[in-house]
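Pilot study result, target chain (132 residues):
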Amino acid sequence: MAQFDQIVLFYNQLINMADEVHELINKELYDLIMDKLSYHDKLFIQIKMAKKCVKLSDEQQQEIDRLDEILKQKEKENIELMQANMTIVKSELNKLNMKTKLKKAYGQIKHNNEQGSIIDIEDSYRPTNTQN
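Predicted structure:
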């Protein structure tokens, strides 16, 4: 297999992987995404090494540039999707934190009312006058 064909193969693997990652993001399977990304990094290194070892014709370079643009666009879409998901998760966490704070605050009020406070003193309490 020629070096150029091998580079094209690596790019096609990365493009397919970007599509798979997109599906995994939609399914919220983030652990599987992390596994894919470790392999993704290895493919990038192989591409860099292969590019250094081969002299590409103008036509071959144009094909590589086209594949590179496709890959960049797909990865940009994945990043935007992840950022949108992060915004949603952050919003949900903020709601959850607010609910927790409210429960904690109202729980302390209830707990304090059970213990009593100076405000809850009944009027029936009257000091006795021991001096007559």
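One observation from the pilot: The chain has a mean pLDDT of 82. A full batch analysis is planned for the follow-on phase.
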